[in-house]
Amino acid sequence: MTKRKPIRVVVLGGGTAGWMSAASVAKLLPGIASVELVESEDIGIVGVGEATLPHIRSFVERLGINEAAFMKATHATYKLGIDFRDFGKIGESYIHPFGSFGEEVAGVPFHHYWLQLQQQGLADDIGTYSMGVMAALGDKFRPPAGDASLGSTYGYAYQFDATLFGPFMRDFATGLGVTRTEGRVTDVKRSGTSGDVETLVLEDGREVHGDLFIDCSGFRSLMLGGALDMEWEDWAHWLPCDRAAAMPCKHVTDEIEPYTRATAMPAGWRWRIPLQHRVGNGYVYASEFLSDDEACAAIKEAAEGEQLADPRVLRFKAGRRKASWSHNVIGVGLSSGFLEPLESTSIYLAQMAITYLLELFPLDGTINPRDRDEFNRLVDMEYDRVRDFLILHYHATTRDDSPFWDHVRTMEVPDSLKSKMELWRDTGRIEKYSEGLFYDASWIAVYVGQGVLPQNHDPRAALPDPQGIKRALGNLQGAIKQEVAAMPGHREFLLSHTGRLADVI
């Protein structure tokens, strides 16, 4: 039997999405595909400090990457959730944890019991019934337990320096046999019959040939948006923030918070991402309501700690391509779509596309149109659901203190989000789905945290004695406090896991 030649996979663009794609194909499809990545050192990457979601852990584990080595190389910290401030009302805050609130009892989700007591003034803040929230507020961390105990009811992600993550993945990928080609692409040649991309032409005249192309060229989207002219679906009318002023600072205390902070601002919001060696800060804003100079001045005034560099302005637009896989080109990362970093979804969306590509990969070299359609369906579904969740943070507010917040509070939202909000307000239920991102606890965190409480809830929660439920919830709070008290501090755990923390660079 003649051995089949490996499918030639060409990745255009380095950075996070490109090297994640190249490493994944090389590691998980050995012998099936050869991988060549084309990038130019002259083209920078959009990397200001990345906060991630727990799904990144499965990516690290699946590729066989040592967590401690990865964290040391990227100056990473642990992340238990996101602290949202001033979104529902000025002066109010809540944490969206990577974990649950309480436990289901007799088939009734915990939050229905909490709502029953809350109506009677017998419940504390819902965050006090979450291990993830209380550990974050205490600046504590340890990996969740591997059993069904209370210590297993939370998850974690990473916060790392994106300018270091790309090179780390590059070294890992080239160690797997990925070929790196330096050069700027000046032309994309397509087949005259099928329309497939066949060749990338570099500035010096060299040509890179392939069978399957992964476009990780960022917002330029040279293949998917350029050569194939795939239409962009603009979501600026729902997500008007289109710029960010980013600026690093020194830590102001010895402790390192195990969470990302998002604080609402007059024309958007600002992030605070604590890494080992510094703190990333940025103001995500809508240029319709704020100038670049005003944004830079605002982040300089609001950021904590000594400034390490001047703010730099990044431009972006919210939306996605009408299709992320066209002909033999798959868009991953910014070339496929972009949703602002309010819930740290950028790396997840790239990882998600890579995962679906591996599942639907043309193992015999022939692309099945049904597989391509399924890929596009899954990717579109993910983007649409994340979009709705992000819009919720803006729309579910009572703020009327600036033109920006007036706009997002009163704007028409997608029908898909409108139906989710109506279901919650009428019944206290969260729309169920088996695929995608952000399940019940995530939506509950934002709804309750921003003051959107339902008119009704599961009537079965009213059957037990309210005082009995209150005692049970009090016992849960006590158990959580005991568990959190036994945890090491975040900085202490980082030192024990990664060794000496990175210095300011």
What do these coordinates show?
With 505 residues, this protein is an alpha+beta fold. It contains 15 helices and 22 strands. The strands form five sheets. A seven-stranded mixed sheet has the order 6-5-15-16-17-14-18. Strand 16 (268-274) and strand 17 form a beta hairpin. The model has no long low-confidence stretch (mean pLDDT 94).
Summarize the structure.
The protein is of the alpha+beta class and 505 residues long.
- Helix/sheet category: alpha+beta
Mean residue pLDDT? 94
Overall body shape:
globular
Radius of gyration: 23 Å
Tell me the quaternary state: single chain
Strand order of the largest sheet: 6-5-15-16-17-14-18
User: How many distinct beta strands?
Assistant: 22
Q: Which residues form runs of ≥5 with pLDDT under 50?
A: none
Supply the number of helical segments: 15
For the termini, the CA-CA separation is: 56 Å
Classify the beta-strand content into a percent band.
Answer: 15-25%
Q: What does the largest sheet look like?
A: 7 strands, mixed
